[in-house]
Amino acid sequence: MAEITLASLIEEQKVRITTLHSCEEFPYYQYDDWEDYQKWVAKTIRFLNINYPNDKFVMDFEKMSENILVPTQQNALLAILEAIASMPTIVPVENKVKNKGTEPITIKNTINNANNQSQSQEQSMAVNIFLEAIKDDLTGRQVKELKEVIKESGSDKEKSRDGIIAKLKSFGSDVASNIVANIITNPLIWSSL
Predict the structure, then answer these.
(1) pLDDT on residue 68
(2) How would you classify the pairing of strands 102-108 and 94-99?
(3) Is the pLDDT of residue 152 over 50?
(4) CA 187 → CA 17, 32, 137, 182, 190, distances in Å?
(5) Residue 175: half-sphere exposure toward Cβ, Cα within 13 Å
(6) Which of 63, 103, 113, 177 counts the highest number of beta carbons within 10 A?
(7) 173 in the same domain as 82
(8) Domain residues for 83?
(9) Cβ(90)–Cβ(56) below 8 Å
(10) What's the whole-model pTM score?
């Protein structure tokens, strides 16, 4: 296995960003190598925490990596890595607290976002698994019809739910069961059962 360096992590992201594409049926972005992207994020966060402990920009990177996948977010992750590479001095996380009218006291914080990161990645993976299952079993026209149902119901989740159920039933009883079966048989879900 090749040695992991900040330069190699930057280069990997530069190449990957060129493959980011939007999905036609839904307003979201994806990578075809989603699992490799997740591994890259985990490796990068680990590398940064080992080599730049308590750096403000490491926390920024972790927070930014939890956001929904869009080109600006992906470029921001790359920009953080490039900034660290060009100026590697650790920028500590600091909070200034007034000490009853005297000089401020500096408090350094160490925050562990690993749990939040994991939850965010799991949610993102779940969304991608769900969207893949829908793309496999619905036509573009059916997806548009579902979007219309959601649009018509506005923010009323109950009305939206009822409309979606009715629309799925109108597509045929096998469509909903095929979507559920595709979700359950996805290797990430299947291994968790």
Answers:
(1) 79
(2) antiparallel
(3) yes
(4) 26, 16, 18, 10, 5
(5) 17
(6) 113
(7) no
(8) 6-112
(9) no
(10) 0.50
